[in-house]
């Protein structure tokens, strides 16, 4: 177990490593007696549980030396180490890294012997107190040499530091609330994903097309199913011209296509093309009808039937949602319904 625990923020590892060398060569503490997590060989050994190792060494060490910086106070882990030292009545030697100063340190540490890490006199007092506590005889000439080297490195580190951004509380609260919402959305997505995986596994076991259709209908929310089918019909219908759309509308709503005779003459060119493509055929009674046996027409009529089934099975929640969003009546035989949903 290490005797000295250096508590420092990872962002301050440069000055922490310089300080580690100061303790070893300046104060005379063996390297194996110091825990410095930012320095290879003096930190957490490979394969060790990081948090458990830190906890064990924090409890077993004789003293804690927190390198208190602006970065330090922004680290939950560092603040926890301070709390752990306080809770176990650990001997603490706080060192303050500018631009932090004595006034910046929490009241709980103001009555504890602390020092600015760049103050030559205070740093020497710290070294003597630490050496006395660990029963080490401080070599004054060696200390003076190493202190001078350390102060040069420390001042260079401090001059290159950028102050952490200051966040206004209202902005922090807003971001915190947004984070909570995102976490809730993330949990919901995970739950939905788990449900989709289960549905996928069930679908893999189904081979009959009618069973697949039944499964989809039973596992898709009513509103979502309606809008999905309506988009499908809209897209399928969009490949046809105005006249063919009218014939499909009449066929799907059981209207008499003889009413379209005059319209067919007005759209004579489209009518002849539709006949050539076998989309419209003679009924045998002198008027045209849609060819419901044409593959694409048959698929389209089946999709329209699916929309009809969803409407017929609709419950109060779906009906209320529909009329809050759409203008046309919820009636697939109504022309306005077709105009709104299928772009008739």
Short synopsis of the structure:
By secondary structure, the protein is α/β, with parallel strands linked by helices. 60% of the residues lie in helices and 7% in strands. It has three domains: 4-159, 3-Layer(aba) Sandwich (Rossmann fold), CATH 3.40.50; 167-219; 221-342, no CATH class.
CATH topology of the largest domain: Rossmann fold
Could you describe the largest sheet, including whether it forms a barrel?
A: 6 strands, parallel
Portion in strands: 5-15%
Return Rg in Å.
Answer: 39 Å
**Number of beta strands:** 8
Can you tell me about this structure?
By secondary structure, the chain is an alpha/beta fold. The chain folds into 3 domains: about 5-160, Rossmann fold (3-Layer(aba) Sandwich), CATH 3.40.50.10140; about 165-220; about 220-340, no CATH class. It has 16 helices and 8 strands. The protein has helices at about 15-25, 50-60, 70-75, 75-85, 105-110, 120-135, 140-160, 170-205, 210-220, 220-235, 240-250, 260-265, 270-275, 295-310, 315-325, 335-340; strands at about 5, 35, 65-70, 90, 95, 115, 280, 290. The strands form 2 sheets. Strands 1, 2, 3, 4, 5 and 6 form a 6-stranded parallel β-sheet that branches. Helix 1 (about 15-25) runs antiparallel to helix 7 (about 140-160) and helix 10 runs antiparallel to helix 14. The longest helix has about 35 residues, at about 170-205. It is rod-shaped. The mean pLDDT is about 80.
């Amino acid at each position: 177990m290490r005797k000295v625990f250096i508590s420092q923020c990872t962002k301050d590892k440069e000055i922490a490593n310089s300080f580690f060398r100061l303790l070893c060569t300046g104060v005379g503490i063996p390297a194996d007696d110091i825990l410095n997590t930012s320095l290879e060989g003096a930190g957490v050994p490979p394969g060790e549980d990081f948090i458990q190792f830190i906890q064990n060494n924090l409890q077993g060490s004789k003293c804690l030396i927190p390198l208190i910086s602006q970065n330090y106070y922004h680290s939950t882990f560092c603040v926890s180490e301070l709390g752990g030292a306080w809770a176990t009545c650990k001997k603490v030697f706080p060192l303050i890294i500018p631009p932090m100063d004595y006034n910046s340190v929490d009241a709980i540490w103001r009555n504890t012997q602390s020092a600015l890490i760049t103050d030559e006199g205070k740093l020497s007092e710290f070294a003597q107190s630490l050496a006395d506590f660990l029963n080490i005889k401080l070599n004054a000439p060696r200390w003076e040499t190493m202190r001078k080297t350390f102060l040069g490195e420390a001042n260079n580190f401090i001059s290159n530091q950028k102050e952490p951004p200051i966040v206004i509380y209202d902005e922090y609260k807003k971001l915190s609330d947004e984070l909570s919402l995102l976490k809730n959305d993330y949990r919901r997505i995970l739950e939905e994903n788990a449900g989709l995986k289960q549905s996928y596994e069930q679908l893999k076991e189904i081979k009959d097309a009618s069973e697949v259709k039944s499964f989809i209908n039973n596992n898709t929310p009513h509103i979502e199913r309606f809008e999905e089918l309506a988009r499908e019909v809209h897209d399928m219908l969009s490949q046809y011209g105005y006249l063919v759309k009218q014939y499909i509308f009449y066929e799907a709503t059981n209207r008499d296509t003889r009413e379209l005779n005059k319209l067919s003459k007005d759209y004579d060119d489209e009518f002849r093309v539709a006949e050539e493509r076998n989309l419209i055929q003679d009924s045998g009674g002198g008027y045209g009808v849609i060819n419901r046996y044409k593959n694409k027409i048959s698929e389209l009529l089946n999709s329209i039937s699916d929309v009809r089934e969803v409407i017929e099975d609709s419950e109060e929640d779906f009906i209320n949602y529909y009329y809050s969003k759409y203008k046309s009546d919820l009636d697939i035989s109504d022309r306005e319904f077709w105009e709104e949903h299928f772009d008739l």
